[in-house]
Amino acid sequence: MLEIGVQSRGIIRENAIEVGYNRIKQAGITCVDYNIVSPEDSTEKLEVTYFKKHQECAERHGIRFCQVHAPIFKYEPNKPDKLEYILEEMKKSIAICKLLESPYLVMHPLELAFELGRVEEERINLEYFGSLAEEASRQKVVICIENMPYRRVGRVWEGACSEARKTLEYIDILNKRAGEECFGACFDVGHANVLGKNLREEVKALGSHLKVLHIHDNDGVTDSHQLPYSFSDARTGLCTTDWSGFLWGLREISFEGVLSFETYRSFTSFPGVLQDSLLQFLYRIGVDFSYIICFNQILDQMGSKKKILFGAGKMFDVYMGEYGKKYPPVFAVDNNACLWGTEKLGIPICNPEAILEIPEDERIVILCNAYYEEIAKQLNDMGINHYELTEEILRMNGKPI
């Protein structure tokens, strides 16, 4: 199972950090994406030693920092000294990342296209990131470039690295100049969603360059940073975010990183007394995500057990298309009596009672049905308590009505 993480923002308050890390751990979450507050938004200076208390507190609670989010600055072309100031603060952020024992620092590209044009924006951004490569290498920190949109006059626009193709161009150029892997990608699901990107294809394109995630939901218009499945189409009831495509993409690239949620607006909007429950629910979502992404490994762990699919509909087709050759079922069962005695894709379809003909220690039933709750009850009534859900890839955007 993949590790599950959450952002510090909205959960860990500076006057009660012990409580914050403890409630994260009690929810089952093991990783934190630490958000460094910009010194421009704080009365305190950005001092590296200040963060030692976070490192010690997290260690006491068995929490690790899977990633750190650098502060966000606005570069102003008419202030030539501003870039030098930003670079110094980013070098401090790399040092903080090292102190927190995090391998990854998430950074935003500078937003310059509206003032200077795309060509100049790219030149300055490559110079900006490249100026940090030596420090990142020295501290053994990988800088992860986030797919940021631009927000202007109530709209979102394509950013410097808001699509995977452009992010890869940046990473390849920067790593080549550095002579080592100092740069990777941070994929933010919500940002890709408001820009109408194909989540599956973006993830696949990033491939091994994808190091960290920001997982959160929105309505496809506003960058809301809410829990997954928070937004749906009023007519169909289906999610406005293509969660199935996102998870499928992660599975196809064999993602092994942390499922890190950036749902801070849920934590700042829910009453404090509900935060523990909210964290537990977020963890449960992460467990389901991990199950889907790692479904190949789950099948491997079944070994030589005979696989029986319960359901001969669309999810049967998905299973056979994805796994039929490597993990063929001995037969499928279905509650539709009209299908008994027939075959589909060369697999016999039987009465569910046929499951009982195979000894329990020699079989594994895989539920290939969107209505798995009803099927699970039916199996329990038959005395069958050991089964697996399929990856449910077709129903991640909502259950059919």
UniProtKB/TrEMBL annotation:
Domain of life: Bacteria
InterPro entries from the UniProt entry: IolE/XylAMocC-like (IPR050312), SAM-dependent_MTases_sf (IPR029063), Xyl_isomerase-like_sf (IPR036237), Xyl_isomerase-like_TIM-brl (IPR013022)
Pfam families: AP_endonuc_2 (PF01261)
Keyword Isomerase part of the UniProt annotation: yes
Signal peptide: none
Protein name per the record: Sugar phosphate isomerase/epimerase
Gene3D superfamilies membership: Divalent-metal-dependent TIM barrel enzymes, NAD(P)-binding Rossmann-like Domain
Domain Xylose isomerase-like TIM barrel: 23-265
Any one Gene Ontology molecular-function term assigned to this protein's record: isomerase activity
UniProt keywords, alphabetically: Isomerase
Organism name: Lacrimispora sp. BS-2
